[in-house]
Amino acid sequence: MKIYDTPTFPENGIIYEGDYYTDIPYHLYISEEKIPAGTIFDIRDYGATAEAGVLSTDAIQKALDEAVGKKGIVLVTGGAYTTGTLSIHSDTTLFIASGASLNASKNLKMFSDAFIKIVDEENVTICGGGRINANGEYFVYLPHERPLVQPLGYTKLPPILKDPMGSPSDTTRFKYRERIRYAEDKWNEGKENIQRPMYTVWVRGSKNVSLHNIIIRDSLDWSLSIDMSEDISIESIVIDNNRHVANTDGIDIMASKHVKVKHVFVSTADDGLCVKAPMVQGHDSINVENAEMKMGATEDVEIEDATVISVMNAFKIGTETYFDIKNVRCKNCTFMLPDIFPGGVSGISIESADGSNISDIHLENITMKNISVPVFISLCKRNKFGYLSDEDRKAKENGGSVKGITIKNVKAEDMEAPCIITGFKDENGYTGYIEDVTISNLCAEYLDNKEILTILPEIRENVRDYPESNALGDMPSYGFYIRHAKNIKLDNVTVKPRTMNTRPILKTDDVENSEIC
Q: Is the peptide bond before 342 cis (omega within 30 degrees of 0)?
């Protein structure tokens, strides 16, 4: 008996001009691939059908289950298959052939945590040249405004962040947020929050997982999450999301070790490449007590040859930062937002907010275009997760640390606001300092538009709020604003301002033992 997919919110799947980036060079990343040697488990042999709108969840999952212990190749070919959550097991390969796809159900009841799950498994591969389509537009409300495909003509930041949207309505922050599709009732219209699945592809508690030669499109929420896992390889993939569906991070790496990301193209609404270390959160299928045994630092992450189109932050460490993050390398990347406006929020963003010690971070050979803030480095003590113990409370209640950051060889065009390096000083007089940051060979140039400035006598101390480069108001300088920092070195840094500029290139406040030239 055929079971047809029934959308939970059939009216939500409208696409507007500017939602998707239309010039992704797929041929540089995705190719036809031969089916690897092994026992083939063709999903059609288990009853899967490519008939539009007919659910094949049970048939595909049966093929995935049958492949266990046989080093099986689960073959998806011959069309597009509609399905709910699928779980992939150890020692198997999910091969989605060129021209074929797994299409997510549009019914919320068809999911548990994620669309594609690899949880507590080993030796798993997803490849083939085909697509994972998640139908993310169907799980968020339509935006208040359509995408902005022409420049605003000005840059204006909210002087004081009165609300998450960034009122008043003419600010740069508000202008992009009113175009985002949220699952929550952001506009207080009495709508019910949509409990959409958290991940499109979720790798959790797993080892030796490879994802290559695959397209992830139109993510449900986070696109590809690497969570509490080790020895992960991500290469030659394309993430092609609706750039106005909220929370659709590209690649998230959390509490994981030995992760390599190479030759990827990410186009998305939220952070493109994101490294985190949160405290565990509960999910439908996860034993939280067991998961706590695996929590810990994120370390040994290598990212190379990534092109990122992001409305938010192209490369980001944070904000979920309870455990330490160390030894992260990112090189030879391009960050941009070429065809919708305002520009992306930041190119490089490094933020410790919840007690994490962030150290040994290296970025080099980075090109940016239409990114508002090239570099944002922040330390605060939001402490979102609370504490695991009294000992942890003592260690983390005054925040973590950010030190040992090296950024070199950066070229940024059409920036709109200054780079910021800021620690914090709380109401009790405690100061959290950012330390040991070197930025060299940075050449940046402003978009020569109009700037509307409201520079307050004191820049707000961001002690417990969500850190974001466009949420602190206007800075008293156009190049760099550096505050509550030690051992900062700027070497061969040039920033070309707007024609109408009235600010100095640099302003510092409570900065010690630094070389700035």
A: yes
If DSSP states are collapsed to H, E and C, what string results for 310-372? ECCEEEEEEEEECCCEEEEEEEEEEEECCCCCCCEEEEEEEEECCCCEEEEEEEEEEEEECEE
**For residue 491, which amino acid is it?**
D
Rounded to an integer, what distance in angstroms lies between the CA atom of residue 211 and that of residue 400? 33
Residue whose entry in the numeric block shows the structure tokens 């959550």: 85
- C-alpha to C-alpha distances, 438 to 50, 371, 375, 377, 477, nearest whole angstrom: 54, 21, 12, 12, 19
Q: Hey, what CATH topology would domain 1-140+196-288 get? A: Pectate Lyase C-like (2.160.20)
Nearest to 406 by CA among 455, 440, 356, 374: 440
- Over residues 432-470, the pLDDT tens digits come to 999 999 999 999 999 999 999 999 999 999 999 999 999
Query: Comparing C-alpha atoms, which of 322, 314, 309, 345 is closest to residue 471?
Result: 345
Task: Write the single-letter amino acid at 366.
Answer: I
Nearest-angstrom CA–CA distance, 339 and 17 = 10
Neighbours of 124 (CB within 10 A): 20
* Residue 23 CB contacts under 8 Å (≥ 6 apart), including other chains: none
With cut-offs at 50, 70 and 90, classify the pLDDT of residue 294. low
Cβ proximity of 176 and 342 under 8 Å = yes
Domain boundaries, the chain: 1-140+196-288, 156-172+312-517
What is the token pair recorded at 37? 């040697």
User: Taking the model in full, what pTM does it have?
Assistant: 0.96
- Looking at residue 257, its amino acid is K
Cα distance between residue 83 and residue 92, in whole Å: 19
**Both tokens assigned to 272:** 């493109």
Query: Is residue 122 a contact partner of residue 88, using CB atoms and an 8 Å limit?
Result: no
Q: pLDDT value at position 514?
A: 76
Q: Is 421 left (phi over 0), alpha (psi -120 to 50) or beta?
A: beta
DSSP letter for each residue of 113-167: SEEEEEES-EEEEEESB-EEE--GGGGSPPPSS----S--SEEE--SS--STT-S
Give tens-digit pLDDT for 50-95: 999 999 999 999 999 999 999 899 999 999 999 999 999 999 999 9
**Cα angle for residues 31, 85, 45 (degrees, 5° grid):** 65
**β-bridge pairing 114-119 and 199-204:** parallel
